[in-house]
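Technical annex, item 7. During the second reporting period the consortium partners agreed on a shared format for inverse folding records so that results from different sites could be compared directly. Each record opens with the tokenized structure and is followed by the designed sequence. A conforming record, contributed by the partner at site C, is shown below for reference.
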């Protein structure tokens, strides 16, 4: 389930549309055969929407808020994928203290296989080289679609900056565009080159990260770790990417991995890391 803001802007070359996911929730469930013998499948759905989430807004043609339910099969033999637009509104019965009954969706939960989600996201999980615990490797350039799209955007921005300087645009305008160029280009290289390696065991957590993995190796005691959490990072269209952050018992936060695709994958990685730490 996703809440998407879709904005249409106009320019000299016509209109362009951008979509940004405002909120999302995912569940991995097992379908079952319909009781009517039709051969169809039944998929349970949980609508657990935050009280303060933005409602559906289709009044403004160029700035819409949409809610979409997406269903996709995880089976290799099936490519089923469907999308439904769902109206969401605040009503007199809306309650900020409401707690959804999760029992039906929990009862239909698919057998836990976090490794499947991890592999599908291009993350490599193997036994640690010393035989103690697990190693998680987040390769550079694994989110290729986002990296290619941002590279094209950076190339266009660079061409605009060159044109502003070359054809004598005002100093303020040219300098302003060039300032943002200094932010865009490093981010582009980050998408292609940043990688991290995390070794996890009940005895220690070791993290090495940076462009091409070149960076200082840092070690932490699992006893000093309060939790690992997923923090929203970049978005590409309606897809949200998450950063994994280690939160110490002293309150300090250290990012240990970037751009994990989707909240389900981020939660799967966290679940396996916590198990490797010796936590249930």
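Designed sequence (site C submission):
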């Amino acid at each position: 389930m996703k809440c998407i803001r879709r904005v249409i802007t106009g320019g000299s070359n016509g209109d362009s549309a951008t979509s940004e996911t405002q909120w999302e929730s995912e569940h991995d469930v097992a379908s079952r055969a319909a009781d009517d013998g039709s051969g169809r499948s039944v998929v349970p759905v949980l609508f657990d929407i935050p009280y303060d989430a933005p409602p559906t807004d289709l009044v403004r043609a160029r700035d819409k808020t949409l809610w979409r339910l997406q269903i996709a099969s995880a089976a290799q033999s099936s490519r089923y994928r469907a999308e439904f637009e769902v109206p969401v509104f605040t009503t007199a019965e809306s309650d900020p203290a409401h707690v959804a009954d999760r029992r039906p969706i929990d009862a239909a939960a698919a057998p836990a296989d976090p490794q499947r989600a991890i592999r599908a996201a291009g993350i490599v999980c193997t036994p640690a080289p010393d035989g103690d615990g697990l190693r998680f490797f987040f390769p550079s350039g694994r989110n290729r679609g986002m990296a290619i799209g941002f590279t094209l955007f950076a190339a266009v921005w660079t061409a605009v900056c060159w044109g502003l300087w070359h054809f004598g645009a005002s100093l303020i305008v040219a300098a302003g565009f060039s300032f943002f160029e200094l932010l865009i280009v490093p981010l582009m290289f980050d998408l292609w080159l940043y990688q991290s390696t995390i070794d996890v065991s009940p005895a220690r957590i070791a993290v090495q990260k940076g462009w091409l993995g070149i960076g200082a190796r840092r070690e932490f005691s699992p006893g000093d770790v309060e939790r690992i959490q997923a923090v929203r990072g970049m978005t590409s269209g309606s897809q949200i990417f998450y950063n994994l952050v280690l939160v110490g018992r002293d309150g300090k936060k250290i990012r240990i991995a970037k751009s994990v695709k989707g909240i389900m994958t981020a939660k799967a990685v966290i679940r396996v890391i916590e198990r490797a730490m010796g936590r249930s």
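The chain has five helices and 14 strands. Residues 144-166 form the longest helix (23 residues). All partners now use this format for quarterly exchanges.
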